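Re: the request from the purification team.
They wanted to know what the chain is likely to look like in 3D before they choose a buffer screen. I agreed to run a prediction and write the result into the notebook, where they can find it.
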Amino acid sequence: MRTMVLRVIAEPPQIFWAPLLPAAVNVLFNFSAMMFGIIIFNVNPMPFFVTTVLGHAVIAGYAVREPHLSTLMAAWMEARRKTVNLTPVRGNKYVA
């Protein structure tokens, strides 16, 4: 019983074997491109479904090697934030 609880806590959220955040970005990007293509250029939506499935397969394949891809992306977004200086200093800038 204890190993089951630890396994549930340790596993990242997934949807169809791919990490949740990259899979959601893939679907959102392809759906937006499909709507843009249909409305503006009147194209067939089938190629967009194919690219969505292929992109999801690539993400799922990469997730086999790195299952915590969503966590890495979230940490990268947090690390990119700039700090705001209250006083001008040379070198490393920290909030004072």
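For the purification team: Residues 38 and 70 are 30 Å apart (CA to CA).
Please add any questions underneath this entry.
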